[in-house]
Amino acid sequence: MLPTPESPPIDRKLLIEGLGKGLRVIEAFSEDRPRLTATEAGERAALTRTAARRYLLSLVHYGYAATDGKYYWLLPRVLRLGQAFMEVARVPRIAQPFIQRASMQCGETLNVGTLDGHEVVYLSRSNAPRVVSIGFHPGARVPAHVVSQGPALLSTFDDAALEAWLEAHDFAAFTGFTVADPDRFRDNVLAARRLGYAHTDQGLDFGLSGLALPLKDRKGQCQYALSVTVQRQVYPDTQLVDRLLPVLREAAEALRPII
């Protein structure tokens, strides 16, 4: 998790455990497992089959899922849960005009994202300054070790939090260039901490490079990152950093007093 100010302690007697279990069932669905049986959902949500089935049937009843009697899958209504955050999240809304101006300045698409456990979640995106643009649409989730926002955000962790994150992360390889070795990735994070920005090259898709830096607020705390994804052939050698890092830094500095 991101290092955030701790919430006040909550008396566990006041918690609705069933709500947490129901949310775990929703989170059991994924891109590679969009349809689940009750048994599979229970295994992924750490519940018994019987309990998982009751939660799944409840989701069907309230319009969040559907079933053919054996398999269950989520329906578009579940998007309302995430859309509520997208609509009230303050920083992505504030950042929009700044990233739009920077996008027009450099001719590339910019993103603002955050870290949710071991994934980067993209929250806002500048409008495309060209007909064909590269970047992530709001709501996209990507393993943090393959995109530049991952090491940029992790560079704000202290050493203990970083080590705990590395130990728990699944370093899957997506291309032959993915940094899938924890020690090499740690070195990249520490380099990002030292330089103030992170650079990734073809970690998720061939031919694409990324550049990101932490979006720090006026107190120096960081919950978000600003990034750009480009075709690497357009920015050979050091041109990606030389040409686009000043644009990102200008936008980040302009945002810092107001986030």
Give me the side-by-side strand order of the main sheet.
5-4-3-8-7-6
Q: What order do the helices and strands follow?
A: HHHEEHHEEEHHHEEEH
Q: In DSSP terms, counting alpha (H) and pi (I) runs of 4 or more, how many helices? A: 9
**How does the helix and strand content classify structurally?**
alpha+beta
Mean pLDDT: 91
Spans of at least 5 consecutive residues whose pLDDT stays below 50 are 1-5
Portion in strands: 15-25%
Helix amount: 40-55%
Distance between the termini: 20 Å
How large is the radius of gyration?
20 Å
What characteristic shape results from the CA principal axes?
globular
Main sheet overview: 6 strands, antiparallel
DSSP strand count:
8
What's the short version?
With 259 residues, this protein is α+β, with helices and mostly antiparallel strands. The protein has nine helices and eight strands.
Task: Describe the secondary-structure layout.
Layout: H1 17-28, H2 38-45, H3 49-61, E1 65-67, E2 72-74, H4 79-88, H5 90-106, E3 110-116, E4 119-125, E5 141-143, H6 149-154, H7 159-168, H8 182-195, E6 198-201, E7 208-216, E8 222-231, H9 239-255
Antiparallel strand pairs: 1-2, 3-4, 3-8, 4-5, 6-7, 7-8
Helix pairs in contact: 1-2, 1-3, 2-3, 5-9
